[in-house]
Specification:
By secondary structure, the protein is mostly helical. The chain has one domain: Farnesyl Diphosphate Synthase, CATH 1.10.600. The protein is 66% helix and 0% strand. The longest helix is centred in the middle third of the chain and has 23 residues. The relative contact order is 0.11.
């Protein structure tokens, strides 16, 4: 089944990206229209599964299984394909999507669904790869690449963004009884909880910055969308700088980059301010 604007899926994909990923949506304005719509559809797949898991919806496991079967090349038996599978089928007509990255993303979703803890920085890196680095890998497949290192670098950029999410949302996650920082790291810095310790946040910011450097180095290897990805990386990385400006956690709540600052960063890559 082809995904088209007529069935409303594309309209929903555009609206979802603009509503829940405003920074990413702003950067996407630099993509060619056809590619941009495919990126919106791809984002809808990942976001839908993530929301199902995050909300502990009863159909979450079934929808993950459907995508895992798709990535494994197992045809659905006597059941209509899920919306995520329909979208992936449509995109696969135009791009060579990496099935292992899709399977790895689903493994990350099952990690969340099962409520597993993260003990070490190595486990945190694996988690960040699964839930976000994989998105970078699939995105690179859609945009096209010119070097063998590009998928690894795209994964690093996704991992950097996920680590940024974790640092931005420490207070929100803590209030919901969740913690995505490594237990060993928390113990090393003298706390069993995320807390607001400057030395802990300096360590985590440095790890994220290192991943940004690796990821940004791969942007020239993209066949298209280089300005869009560079804009997204620049705007997202600024959240780390905002955490620093806010005093490394001394100011409670999310670190929020001022809209004008975000627009200024986007403008460096040719993104016009939203009307």
């Amino acid at each position: 089944m082809l995904v088209s604007q007529r069935d409303g899926t594309l309209v929903e994909a555009r609206a979802t990206t603009r509503r829940v990923a405003r920074t990413f949506a702003l950067a996407c304005r630099l993509l060619p229209r056809g590619t941009r719509d495919d990126v919106y559809l791809l984002y809808l797949v990942f976001r839908s599964l993530d929301d199902l898991v995050d909300e502990r919806r009863p159909e979450a496991a079934e929808r993950l299984t459907a995508v895992e079967r798709w990535a494994s090349g197992i045809a659905a038996e006597r059941v209509p394909p899920s919306r995520e599978v329909q979208i992936l089928d449509s995109l696969a007509l135009r791009y060579t999507l990496p099935p292992q990255a899709v399977l790895d993303f689903c493994a990350g979703m099952r990690h969340d669904l099962e409520g597993r803890q993260i003990d070490s920085e190595e486990e945190l890196d694996l988690y960040c790869y699964r839930v976000a680095g994989t998105v970078g890998v699939v995105m690179a497949a859609v945009l096209g690449t010119s070097t063998p290192e590009a998928p690894r670098q795209a994964a690093a950029l996704g991992m950097a963004m996920q680590r940024t999410n974790i640092l931005r949302d420490i207070d929100e996650d803590s209030s919901a009884g969740r913690c995505y920082l490594a237990r060993q790291t928390l113990t090393r810095y003298g706390s069993a909880e995320p807390g607001l310790r400057e030395d802990l946040l300096r360590d985590q910011i440095a790890r994220a910055d290192s991943l940004y450097e690796e990821g940004i180095a791969g942007i020239p290897a993209l066949n298209s969308g280089r300005r869009a990805i560079a804009a997204a990386a620049s705007m997202y990385r600024e959240i780390l700088r905002q955490i620093e400006r806010d005093g490394y956690g001394r100011q409670p709540g999310r670190a929020v980059v001022a809209p004008l600052r975000k627009v200024a960063l986007a403008a460096r890559h040719g993104v016009a301010p939203p009307r």
